[in-house]
Sequence to fold (204 residues):
Amino acid sequence: MTNKNPSFKYEKFYRNKGFSNIVGLDEVGRGSFAGPLVAAAVILPWKFKINGIKDSKMLNPKTRSSLSRYIIDNALDYVISEVSVDYINSYGIGKATNKAFLSCLKKLKRKFDFVLVDGYKIRRFDQRKQTGVIHGDSISVSIAAASIIAKVYRDDLMIKLHTKYPNYDFLKNKGYGTKFHRDAIKKFGLSEVHRTSFNLKKFL
Fold:
């Protein structure tokens, strides 16, 4: 994983190619044992100030929350989409991720003409109007901004799920496979918000 601070390098490159409204797109929760997958899409203005934005995983919760509000308040447009555990269990995390990305792009109100997506290109979307950026949340400000919004939103969801399923400590692990979480699965079994499609027994 790169430790670089994100910049507008990619955004400027595609702007010089004639694209104006560029979307940053990222997901959160792909590797989690439990809970929904969440994706966010953001269109930032060209004079947007980076203001310390970086990969959401590199920020503490308080900073993430503050930056999420800053991004939402200053973005030209943003949307959030979530894909349920039921869908993940039925179709797999790959299709769930693609569904979340397509849903975000469909819900954007502002017209856009290019997409920067973290990782790999989106299936069933015009390949000429997108590019996948490996470690994009560490490279592109737009992708990093999307990752922050998605992370804050999903963390809040997992905190709410903790009140319903306190045995798994979602408050702290947000559904990821910590030792405490794995031990809890051994003791209590799987809840209805766990991803059975992940074959979690292999992690125990």
Q: What stands out?
A: The chain is about 40% helix and 15% strand.
